């Protein structure tokens, strides 16, 4: 508002001008920026989504309604929890490394993103296997409700987030023969977002298994 | 938008990724999910065998119906090509002709018009429900529908309006005009933009299917644990609102990213049109609030489907959990219905007052202030629920504090009208009516925010009158203002002015005549959503019903205007019928595919109306002696 | 250019109308409004409403006068259009406006808190009420279920009746709870509204000041027959109440012994539609 120009002549209808300009073409920087800000916002939405489950966890725990928050024996197997959290953390590190390599050298991101993809999928499969070996069911009180709701939707969101990991990996496969192997746009924001989601997975391990 | 119309025969053009195949695959997907749901056997699901209502089957049916619908529309093509390693591309084929309105189209102008028609359709259905509700309330005891169907009607009306109309202004008008106003060629995520629209349509269709499954008795709030014992049809409520939430979240992300990254050179934050401020504040609320709703509804789906107990106090859960989560979303929700209205009204006032927007900065502060405060007020919906009685003074204060930024919006409107040269065109009439309605809505809101007064009015028709004044009086009036204002740009044809004025006056008078008596009914002890009432309240209820029918008829007048102007007369509108200085009116009509043939450079905000104040007033001309 | 002083004209019209209308609203209309002043809680609510009306009326008059004046005086007909003055902002206006609205809000919130502090003004305050009635209170439990209210008097042997009677001029402590879904116990003339949540003890206080009969309605959507969940209660003299409650105790003695022990919350098996 400070640099506002008030037309001196009242008869001037508009001083919004359409001028020739050379900045019209979209640049990779613009696309990177769109991806970065988009992932920040999607990250905010993801946080609010899991915030609901965190809130449910602590709220129901503090109420302990009818004494059925967590009856005896409602304990998820610790080994699975550690396995899933570790796989997620390693996957995130691998993909961050892939983005870093791609940024610095413009190639060689294929292997680490493949590893990240495998580890991420492994975490999701391990979660599914855990349901088969768990000593309680979804109807076993408040904790069991939160545990099942949270982990199921965590897997759904992790699978959606792995889409960009897969895209990076597939782009690397396709770029194998080419000399200048085009780095997919938005690899760094995607890596940060996947690390963020994996971090939420580790956080859910801390809350659901440790606290 | 001079796409080449294909010369292929019609049957050939129908084959491809379009709405037809979306619907076909959607139905196929539904039956697949339905079949799959009946194949699942687990201990916690054994109770389904004692009834013929298998919630898991219905939910899976909806999930696969949605997947089939999106596949049929072609939403999987691009992700699959990326997953096969192809590069990111913006060069998606733009089909010409009418076909692009029935498929995934990445042109923001097409999406805007899709939204306008789609939302208009569901708005009409929601309005019809309201007519049926008022018809039932003509008599103190049920005559037409009976208690169960009445509750389904109430739930459908509330859910449809609160769900679909969240995108009522952002969907059609921000999608269409925000890129034009900021000098961009496209939205930041064009495919996501199209996705938000088709998600909303899928949601609306799913909500309508509740009629096939017995309806739902919970109203739009869907409180637990009533939702746990509710009929089969409640699953469609869950999927409707979850999809609306998803659509809102994506829409919000898209709006904010577009505004941050795609502004034309010279369009600083201080020059951003106020409508864009309204849109991105709304978008922020959508991004942060809607995921909470999705999570709450998925918990409900789990409670119903796999027997968890999030909301059952006898099994370790708590109904308060749902109320907290729902209203943590629900209060930002009602502001995300109101905020775009603020934007529209303040955007249009300067055009018709021929003055710059008075107090641009405080208007922005007002809009952003309302948006931020709205996250700290949700427990005023729970003032009599027994929750946190020691926090009530805080929520009372924070709720009343909302009137400070809202007051700034009023101040800006009043400042803009001061010494203006007001032209009473149809959009201006709707904007001025907005101030009247929203003032009544806001003032009654102060009564509701003050706890002692709220105890008397909570959950009564008083509340209903209040939020119809803010939402219908705020959002819907702004919605019509925007339609009358921007239709000449969108279709190149102006709506008939005389019919528009008749529509306005009918709507304004019948609106007030419908909702003002509801304040009295609420105070006299009529709760919401009841199918019976004491017979001494019948005269007032009949008055309200008749007014409501007139209000409904005014919508038909609007439809008549649309048909008359856009189909029968088709008189081309002038290029800039309102003499607006805003950027969207500087483009040719119809707007070309790439919006601007050159990159626009902005060197002022769009409110440079008016003559600058003359420093020294001229002395009055001396009385010249008559010649001769 | 003899521009009249618009602002002064608006101020005069506003002042004249406010001086006439505000006393009418506050002194004539407000006392006739529901919920009346038959109980302490209703009185809290009504005095809050009266104060709010007293503040809202001059503001509403100001709005209507301002908008009507500008819309009439500054209107222009037809084309071509004239342009208005290019005034953009005036700090001398919006700072006082901001201070004024903030002051009103603070005042209203303070006044509301004062009224609320008088035993919660009849609203349900949950198991640990922040604002209580002290001294001798009569506890009455309101049990909501689909689709009726029943009432238990724990100090009279936990008898459960289908009808609500209260003694006049005695502090009453309602304990509202539910057996299935959320209901809301609303007695408009009594000035009491408290949600009935399953498994929650929602406490509300009231002191009836006169003998009367009052309506009770459920004001939270609770399922199919929500519209039929209403009842009538009575406020009677102390002796009539004692007589009535002892008669209830005698009549329901065979039933009372089969009732679960009085408790502030009950946990029946959850109502699942398939269960």
What is the topological layout?
The complex is a heterotrimer of chains A (211), B (628) and C (275).
Chain A: E1 17-18, H1 28-63, H2 78-105, H3 110-132, H4 141-174, H5 187-210
Helix pairs in contact in A: 1-4, 1-5, 2-3, 2-5, 3-4, 4-5
Chain B: H1 10-13, H2 19-39, H3 55-73, H4 77-83, H5 108-136, H6 146-164, H7 170-181, H8 190-208, H9 226-229, H10 234-261, H11 274-305, H12 319-353, H13 360-373, H14 392-401, H15 403-417, E1 422-423, H16 426-449, H17 451-457, H18 461-491, H19 497-523, H20 538-569, E2 600-601
Chain C: H1 6-29, H2 40-73, E1 75-76, H3 91-117, E2 137-145, E3 148-153, E4 159-161, E5 164-167, E6 171-178, E7 183-187, E8 192-196, E9 202-206, E10 212-218, E11 230-236, H4 238-256
Parallel strand pairs in C: 2-6, 5-11
Antiparallel strand pairs in C: 2-3, 3-4, 6-9, 7-8, 7-10, 10-11
Topology of chain A as a string of helices (H) and strands (E):
EHHHHH
The number of helical elements of chain A comes to 5
The domain count of chain A comes to 1
Identify low-pLDDT runs of chain B.
Answer: 1-5, 624-628
The pair of chains with the biggest contact is: B-C, 108 and 105 residues
Terminal CA distance of chain A reads 51 Å
> Portion of residues in helices of chain B?
55-70%
Query: What is the level 1 CATH name of the largest domain in chain B?
Result: Mainly Alpha
Describe the oligomeric state of these chains in a short phrase.
heterotrimer
The biggest sheet of chain B amounts to: none
């Amino acid at each position: 508002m400070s640099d506002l120009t008030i037309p001196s002549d009242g008869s001037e209808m508009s001083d919004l001008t359409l001028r020739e300009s050379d900045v019209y073409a979209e640049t990779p920087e613009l696309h990177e920026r769109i991806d970065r800000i988009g992932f920040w916002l999607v990250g905010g939405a993801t946080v609010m989504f899991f915030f609901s489950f965190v809130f449910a966890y602590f709220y129901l725990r503090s109420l302990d309604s009818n004494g059925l928050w967590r009856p005896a024996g409602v304990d998820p197997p610790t080994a699975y929890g550690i396995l899933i959290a570790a796989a997620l953390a390693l996957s995130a590190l691998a993909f961050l490394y892939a983005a870093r390599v791609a940024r610095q050298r413009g190639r060689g991101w294929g292997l680490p993103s493949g590893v990240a993809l495998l580890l991420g999928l492994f975490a999701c499969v391990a979660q599914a296997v855990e349901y088969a070996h768990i000593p309680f069911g979804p109807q076993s009180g408040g904790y069991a409700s939160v545990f099942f709701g949270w982990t199921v939707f965590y897997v759904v969101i992790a699978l959606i987030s792995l889409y960009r990991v897969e895209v990076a990996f597939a782009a690397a496969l396709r770029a194998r023969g080419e000399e200048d192997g085009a780095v997919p746009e938005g690899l760094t924001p995607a890596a940060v977002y996947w690390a963020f989601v994996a971090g939420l997975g580790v956080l859910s391990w801390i809350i659901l298994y440790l606290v | 938008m001079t796409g080449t119309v294909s010369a292929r025969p019609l049957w050939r053009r129908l084959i491809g990724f379009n709405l037809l195949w979306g619907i076909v695959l959607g139905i196929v997907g539904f039956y697949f999910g339905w079949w799959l749901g009946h194949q699942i056997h687990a201990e916690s699901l054994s109770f389904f065998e004692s009834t013929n209502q298998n919630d898991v089957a219905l939910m899976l049916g909806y999930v696969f119906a949605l997947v089939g619908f999106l596949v049929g529309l072609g939403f999987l093509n691009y992700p699959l090509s990326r997953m096969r390693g192809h590069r990111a591309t913006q060069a998606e084929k733009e089909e010409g002709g009418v076909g692009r309105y029935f498929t995934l189209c990445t042109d923001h102008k097409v999406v805007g018009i899709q939204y306008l028609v789609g939302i208009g359709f569901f708005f009409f259905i929601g309005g019809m429900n309201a007519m049926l509700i008022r018809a039932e309330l003509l008599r103190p005891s049920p005559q037409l529908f009976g208690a169960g169907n009445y509750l389904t009607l109430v739930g459908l009306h509330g859910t449809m309006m609160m769900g679909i109309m969240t995108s009522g202004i952002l969907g059609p008008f921000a999608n269409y005009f925000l890129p034009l106003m900021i000098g961009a060629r496209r939205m930041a995520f064009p495919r996501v933009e199209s996705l938000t629209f088709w998600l909303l349509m899928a949601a609306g269709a799913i909500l309508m299917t509740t009629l096939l499954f017995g309806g739902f008795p919970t109203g739009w709030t869907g409180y637990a644990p009533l939702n746990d014992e509710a009929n089969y049809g409640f699953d469609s409520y869950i999927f409707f609102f979850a999809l609306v939430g998803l659509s809102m979240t994506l829409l919000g992300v898209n709006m904010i990213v577009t505004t941050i990254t795609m502004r034309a050179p010279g369009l600083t934050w201080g020059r951003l049109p106020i409508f864009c401020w309204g849109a991105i504040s709304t978008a922020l609320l959508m991004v942060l609030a809607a995921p909470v709703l999705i999570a709450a509804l998925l918990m409900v789906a789990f409670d119903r489907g796999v027997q968890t107990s999030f909301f059952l106090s006898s099994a370790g859960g708590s109904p308060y959990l749902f109320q907290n989560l729902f209203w943590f979303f629900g209060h930002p929700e009602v502001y995300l219905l109101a905020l775009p209205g603020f934007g529209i009204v303040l955007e249009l006032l300067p055009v018709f007052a021929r003055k710059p927007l008075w107090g641009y900065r405080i208007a922005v502060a007002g809009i952003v202030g309302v948006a931020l405060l709205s996250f700290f007020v949700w427990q005023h919906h729970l003032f009599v629920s027994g929750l946190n009685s020691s926090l009530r003074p805080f929520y009372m204060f924070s709720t009343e504090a909302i009137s400070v930024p809202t007051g700034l919006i009023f101040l800006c409107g009043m400042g803009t009208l001061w010494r203006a040269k007001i032209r009473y065109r149809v959009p201006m009439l709707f904007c001025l009516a907005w101030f009247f309605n929203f003032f009544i809505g806001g003032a009654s809101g102060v009564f509701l925010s003050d706890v002692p007064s709220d105890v008397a009015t909570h959950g009564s028709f008083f509340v209903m009158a209040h939020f119809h004044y803010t939402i219908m009086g705020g959002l819907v009036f702004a919605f019509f203002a925007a339609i009358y204002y921007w239709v000449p740009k969108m279709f190149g044809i102006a709506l008939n002015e005389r019919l528009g004025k008749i529509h306005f006056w009918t709507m304004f008078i019948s609106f007030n005549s419908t909702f003002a008596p509801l304040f009295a009914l609420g105070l006299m002890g009529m709760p919401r959503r009841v199918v019976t009432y004491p017979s001494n309240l019948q005269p007032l209820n009949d008055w309200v019903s008749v007014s409501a029918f007139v209000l409904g008829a005014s919508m038909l007048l609007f439809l008549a205007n649309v048909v008359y102007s856009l189909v029968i007369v088709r008189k081309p509108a002038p290029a800039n019928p309102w003499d607006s200085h805003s950027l969207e009116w500087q483009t040719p009509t119809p707007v070309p595919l790439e919006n601007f043939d050159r990159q626009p450079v902005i060197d002022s905000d769009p409110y440079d109306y008016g003559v600058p104040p003359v420093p020294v007033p001229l002395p009055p001309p001396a009385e010249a002696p008559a010649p001769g | 250019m003899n521009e009249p002083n618009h602002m002064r004209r608006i101020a005069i019209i506003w002042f004249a109308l406010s001086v006439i209308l505000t006393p009418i609203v506050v002194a004539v209309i407000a006392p006739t409004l529901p919920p009346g002043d038959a109980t302490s809680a209703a009185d809290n609510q009504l005095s809050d409403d009266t104060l709010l009306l007293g503040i809202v009326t001059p503001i509403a008059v100001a709005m209507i006068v301002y908008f009507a004046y500008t819309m009439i005086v500054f209107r222009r007909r037809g084309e071509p259009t004239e342009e208005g003055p290019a005034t953009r902002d005036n700090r001398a206006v919006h700072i006082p406006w901001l201070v004024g609205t903030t002051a009103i809000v603070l005042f209203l919130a303070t006044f509301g808190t004062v009224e609320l502090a008088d035993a919660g003004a009849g609203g349900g305050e949950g198991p640990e009420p922040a604002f209580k009635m002290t001294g001798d209170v009569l506890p009455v439990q309101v049990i909501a279920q689909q689709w009726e209210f029943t009432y238990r008097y724990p100090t009279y042997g936990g008898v459960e009746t289908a009808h609500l009677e209260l003694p006049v001029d005695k502090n009453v402590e309602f304990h509202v709870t539910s057996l299935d879904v959320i209901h809301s116990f609303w007695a408009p003339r009594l000035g009491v509204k408290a949600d009935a949540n399953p498994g929650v003890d929602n406490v509300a206080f009231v002191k009836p000041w006169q003998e009367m009969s009052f309506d009770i309605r459920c004001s939270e959507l609770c399922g199919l027959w929500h519209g039929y969940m209403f009842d009538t209660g009575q406020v009677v003299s102390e002796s009539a109440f004692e007589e009535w409650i002892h008669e209830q105790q005698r009549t329901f003695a065979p039933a009372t012994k089969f009732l679960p022990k009085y408790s502030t919350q009950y946990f029946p098996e959850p109502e699942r539609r398939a269960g």
